[in-house]
Design goal:
heterodimer; A: Coagulation Factor XIII, Chain A, domain 1; six-stranded mixed β-sheet; 23% helix; B: 73% helix
């Protein structure tokens, strides 16, 4: 069953050429229209099954927050329909009804009632709010004496005091200290496990990847794509690098993973190999700690003033494990002629935990991916790291200790 | 454009009743927060006003309202009109700002928007009750209390609240789109105050102009308070009929405009 159904939704703000034209439209007996519609989002359709966690991702102005506000019922839709089943709790801004002169407890009560809780419910929820926010004695002091972090903690504790059927969160989690961020995440995750549907708007890739099973990518008020978080973030990065989207090329590799390529194409990666050091044979899996060589063949399709090669190793969640480029390593290449081939050889040891990894490559003119971007390829290559004969360990890094036990 | 029915909003207001009452209580205590005397000020300020008027008009100026009236008649007349007027002015002037002042709440929180007028009306009535109780107590001490007939101010008050609520809702909606309303309301309130015999008696107006004043729909309303409190007589209910009619028209108009523009309000704030 779908808990949120968005069908053909659009939101337009009315632009009137002058104040008089609005008045004229209001009082005129004819149905003349004097405004133009400025569509911020349009033709949005998707459905979210009950219990799913969806991330809404997009650059500023893509329409994520507008969409979330419409799902929350704060803002109305201009066309289409949104159906939400069950109780909805929206965290669009923390500490909304807080007044500095009132105590945390008084503010928490009112903020809770603003969410629709009754007096009795707030009485019942207050011990949990006090415990979760961890602000101790400050609960009975005026909010003006609070640090920003304390206000956020209290506000979040109120906003999530009761598990809703649908929880909508807008960027609210990127504030507060790391400890509380993790704690609030744990709460959201536990609500999800208990069956709540979650919609998260965030720029924070880690946050989205750790909690969402699917991401909807928005750009300029349209849905670009929907899919698994890692692939959508690759697409998102490509969109940032190439806002026109003209050179964006998304294809699916043989094994089903999606490969996103963007850039001007003035230089291209023609082959990628990972070899065990001292061998010429390409391999797909390696033992933890193995010495390997990443060989990348690049072809210039135009005269290039300056060529930088960069790469990133990412884990299965798409988190960057390591990344650098030849600008940082001090090997920039200047005046590359069209048609020439360049081989980059990078040797390193795979001191990372077992698992599947992917490599993203970048051919650029400077150390940022936003300057001249010749080619950016996400998921350009994949490999696996195996534990082999190594001592068993947990984690993403291989920090092998030599153990000494002193009695 | 999706047209929204206001009915779910009204149901929402009921489910949010605890929030409304809590917000009223907050508004009240916010006013006296961080002061030594706290809520005592809610009594002290009207009390001082009543004392000053009583002193000035009954002893110093020896104002006589009509033949055979007591020394206190003019001050009672004045206060009986001024207190309801203060309620009227508060509801209209604060009410017209209710959507603008709560813009952030309306844009960020999913709650029934019609909680805002409810908070306004209940809050204003609460203040009025406190202030009017002080007045009644004063009358009791002066021996000017009119007894059971005083209860007839309740229906008069109800008509006034209906009138003011309609005006406030209408102005609040218009104000979101045309901010000139704010300035205009301030002028209109001033004008209405002086065109209504509150601070003076209608008898000081030349007889040939009195018919003009009697066109004012608020005249019988405030006149009713004065008749009840000063003379201890029930008001002429039929004279209030045009006021009731206008209050209903205001409310119907306010609801029609609110319904048509409801979705646009949040977009425009």
């Amino acid at each position: 069953m779908d808990s949120i159904t968005v069908s053909g939704v659009g939101k337009a703000y009315r632009d009137y050429p002058s104040r008089w034209s609005r008045l004229r439209e209001w009082v005129s007996l004819t149905s003349n229209v004097y405004h133009t519609k400025n569509w911020v989002v349009r033709n949005i359709s998707f459905s979210i099954p009950a219990g799913a966690a969806i991330g809404l991702v997009g650059v500023n102005g893509a329409g994520k927050s507008t969409l979330l506000k419409m799902i929350a019922g704060v803002s109305s839709v201009s066309e289409g329909r949104i159906e939400v089943i069950g109780s909805v709790s929206a965290i669009l801004e923390l500490g909304l009804a807080f007044h500095p002169d009132f105590t945390g407890r008084q503010n928490a009560r009112l903020a809770g009632m603003l969410l629709g809780h009754s007096h009795e419910e707030m009485d019942a929820l207050m011990p949990d709010i006090a415990a979760f926010s961890e602000i101790g004695d400050y609960l009975d002091r005026p909010v003006r004496t609070y640090s920003t972090g304390m206000q956020v903690r209290l506000a979040f504790s109120v906003a999530t005091a009761r598990r809703p059927d649908v929880l909508l969160v807008d960027e609210a989690l990127s504030v507060g200290d790391v400890y509380f961020q993790q704690k609030s995440f744990a709460r959201i995750r536990s609500y999800r496990e208990l069956g709540s549907t979650l919609v998260l708007v965030s720029h924070d890739k880690t946050a989205i990847q750790s909690i969402c099973d699917s991401v909807i990518l928005l750009d300029r008020g349209r849905v670009i794509d929907q899919g698994e978080p890692a692939a959508m973030f690759d697409l998102y990065n490509a969109l940032i690098a190439d806002p026109s989207g003209a050179t964006l090329n998304k294809s699916h590799a043989a094994d089903g993973r999606s490969v996103t390529v963007s850039g001007t194409g003035q230089a291209k990666v023609s082959s990628i190999k990972i070899l065990s050091e001292g061998s010429d044979v390409e391999a797909g899996s390696f033992i933890v700690g193995a010495q390997v060589v990443l060989e990348v063949q690049v072809e210039a399709h135009a005269d290039i003033e300056r060529l930088i090669f960069g790469y990133m190793v990412r884990d299965r969640l798409g988190q960057v494990v390591y990344g650098t480029n030849t600008h940082h390593t001090g090997n920039p290449l200047c005046n590359v002629r069209s048609g020439s081939k360049v081989l980059f050889r990078l040797s390193f040891s795979l001191n990372i935990g077992p698992g599947k990894y992917s490599i993203s490559t970048a051919l650029v003119s400077s150390d940022t991916h936003l300057d001249s971007n010749y080619e950016w390829t996400d998921q350009a290559h994949q490999f696996e790291v195996l534990i082999g004969e190594r001592t068993y360990f947990e984690g993403s890094s291989w920090l092998e200790p030599s153990v000494e036990v002193v009695i | 454009m999706q047209k929204q029915s206001l009915w779910p909003e009204l149901v929402g207001v009921w489910t949010y009743r605890d929030f409304i009452m809590a917000a009223v209580a907050r508004d009240f205590s916010q006013r006296y927060k961080r002061s030594f005397l706290g809520a005592l000020w809610a009594v002290l300020s009207p009390l001082s006003m009543i004392l000053i008027y009583t002193l000035v008009f009954s002893n110093l100026m020896q104002g006589r309202l009509f033949e055979g009236s007591s020394n206190y008649a003019y001050s009672t007349y004045l206060i009986a009109g001024l207190l309801p007027w203060a309620l009227f002015a508060e509801m209209v002037s604060r009410g017209q700002m209710m959507f603008i002042e709560n813009a952030n709440l309306l844009k960020k929180a999913a709650f029934p928007k019609l909680c805002l007028p409810a908070i306004l009306i209940i809050g204003a009535l609460q203040n009025f009750c406190i202030v009017f109780s002080v007045f009644l107590l004063g009358l009791l001490l002066q021996g000017e209390f009119r007894g059971i007939i005083t209860l007839t101010i309740i229906p008069v008050l109800a008509i006034q609240v209906l009138f003011a609520a309609g005006a406030a809702l209408l102005l609040a909606t218009l104000n979101v789109f045309f901010r000139d309303v704010m300035q205009l309301t301030a002028i209109l309130l001033q004008l209405t105050f002086w065109l209504t015999p509150i601070a003076y008696a209608i008898s000081i107006i030349p007889t040939s102009y009195q018919w003009l004043f009697e066109l004012n729909p608020l005249l019988p309303l405030f006149g009713a308070y004065q008749i009840i409190m000063v003379r201890g007589l029930p008001p002429d209910w039929w004279s209030l009929a045009p006021t009731v009619a206008l209050a209903l028209v205001l409310n119907i108009l306010a609801w029609a405009i609110l319904k048509a523009r409801f979705n646009e309000i949040v977009d425009e704030l």
